[in-house]
Design goal:
HNH; alpha+beta; 45% helix; 13 strands; two-stranded antiparallel ribbon; endonuclease; three-stranded antiparallel β-sheet; 463 residues; hydrolase; DUF222; nucleic acid binding
Length: 463
């Protein structure tokens, strides 16, 4: 790979200590800084394009920096400058913390090729190096990909290239948080034993401490395994939701205050319950969104499950354990347990339809909505007043902000294979290109990872 070389020249006078890039990606960034005063003259489209272009150039410059870091490490420049390691040298040079310096050094080693490699070897992460060079993903994406590939068990090492290419391709359209979820899903798919051991280790590492501070307030510190953490989030989330607006004024409480109030409400509910555990305790509840027979078949082939409240993966072994001692609430699409439509006789979505919508869409189905958990609203795709039925296939979950935008700007919503598709008005996008919405569902993960899931082995003696 040919390095993207940039020349820097020092300035003097009032700007002493600053550097200006004269060639390469850095030059485009420097030029954009020089033209920053023009920002107010940009049209909305130009402003949007400029922001995206600068991000691409910055990421390309980051790839060049990674190549330079790898070369500096090969030359052991840190020794010449009396540093104990390249990481420490880089930390001092760039004034970044040790964790950031370590991440850059590790990624640099895996996305660059040593000039001494005469055996035709390539980089450890060629697909990641390519996307970094194109400026379509950042260092955090690359760190996640590297961590996932490095964590593959010996039995799956031969598939490292396949895994890396899959993650690099998805990184083009995913933020680091969603990419990390996909990487975790891959780990759970290819390393079931390791994932189960990790869950057991988390269970052993569980802890909760509480003490009364000098001012009389109770201080709680806890580390919960993912299963218990999911239960906690599922119980707290609806109780900590923002209060409805009153006379146009939003809930004045901070997130921390809402969580504290939600926790207090949860304690009150427990204390007021007639089912407070005295011997043994309550059995957990499991919400299932597929046919129960399908659930049993999926668990037998080792496919990991998902803790809906926290969107974390969980091994099939622990899903089976939970299911052994639970009450299963069937939430089967088009099933017989609960009718997922009430026709046009009822405008407000009843509880079971809201539950199905939340499972399908998440808190808000609008593309790239970052709305925190709160009070989502069920929107009729074909308006109820126009005869649109109150049923799953005619409804979509939206946060209050996007619910207003859908009505005010007249977006069009359709369902494609069960996934909401949002078509913007021409005032937002002249091409009116549909955008997929909804959350990343386990079904989508299964489709993405279909090629990675091993074929179940047939027991010996079975025809």
């Amino acid at each position: 790979m040919t390095p993207l070389m940039t020349t820097f020249t020092a300035t003097s006078g009032a700007g002493a200590g600053m550097v200006a890039a004269t060639t390469g990606p850095g030059a485009a960034v420097a030029e954009s800084w020089a033209e920053s005063s023009r920002a107010t003259s940009y049209t909305d489209a130009e402003l949007t394009g400029r922001i995206a272009e600068i991000e691409r150039v910055i990421r390309q410059a980051r790839m060049e920096q990674l190549e330079l870091i790898a070369e500096a490490d090969r030359r052991r420049l840190f020794a010449e400058q009396s540093a104990r390691s390249t990481q420490a040298w880089l930390q001092n040079l760039l004034r970044i913390d040790s964790r950031e310096a370590k991440a850059r050094l590790q990624v640099a080693a895996d996305v660059t090729t040593s000039p001494d490699a005469h055996d035709g070897s390539t980089t450890e992460l060629p697909a990641t190096a390519q996307t970094l060079s194109e400026g379509v993903l950042g260092l955090e994406h690359a760190t996640i990909i590297r961590r996932c590939v490095r964590a593959l068990p010996e039995s799956a090492k031969q598939r490292a290239g396949e895994v890396e290419a899959l993650l690099a391709a998805n990184a083009r359209r995913m933020c680091p948080r969603d990419l990390a979820k996909l990487a975790e899903r891959i780990t759970y798919t290819l390393d079931k034993d390791g994932a189960l051991q990790e869950e057991r280790a988390q269970h052993e590492a569980r802890e909760l401490h509480y003490a009364t501070a000098r001012d009389g307030m109770l201080v709680i510190k806890a580390r919960l395994d993912r299963e218990t953490g999911a239960k906690f989030v599922a119980a707290l989330r609806p109780l900590a939701a923002p209060r409805p607006e009153t006379d146009g004024e939003k809930d004045p409480r901070t997130v921390g205050q809402r969580n504290a109030d939600g926790f207090a409400a949860m304690v009150d509910l427990v204390l007021d319950s007639d089912q407070m555990p005295r011997t043994g305790g309550q059995r957990p509840h499991l919400t299932v969104t597929i046919d129960f027979d399908d659930l049993k078949q999926r668990l037998t082939n080792g496919t990991p499950g998902t803790l809906t409240a926290t969107e974390q993966s969980i091994t099939a072994e622990n899903v089976r354990r939970i299911a052994c001692d639970c009450e299963v609430l069937p939430m089967v699409l088009n099933g017989d347990s609960l009718p997922l439509d009430v026709g046009t006789t009822q405008r407000t979505a009843p509880t079971h339809i809201r539950a199905a919508l939340l499972q399908r869409d998440g808190v808000c189905a609008f593309p790239d909505c970052d709305r925190p958990p709160g009070t989502p609203q069920a929107h009729h795709i074909k308006h109820w007043i126009d005869g649109g039925p109150t049923e799953l296939n005619n409804m979509v979950m939206l946060c209050p902000h996007h619910h207003r935008r859908i009505h005010d700007q007249h977006w069009t919503i359709t369902l494609h294979q069960g996934r909401p598709m949002f078509t913007p008005p021409s005032s937002v996008d002249k091409s009116r290109k549909p955008k997929p919405g909804g959350k990343a569902r386990p079904a989508a993960y299964r489709e993405t990872l279909q090629g990675l899931i091993p074929t179940p082995r047939t027991p010996e003696g079975t025809p």
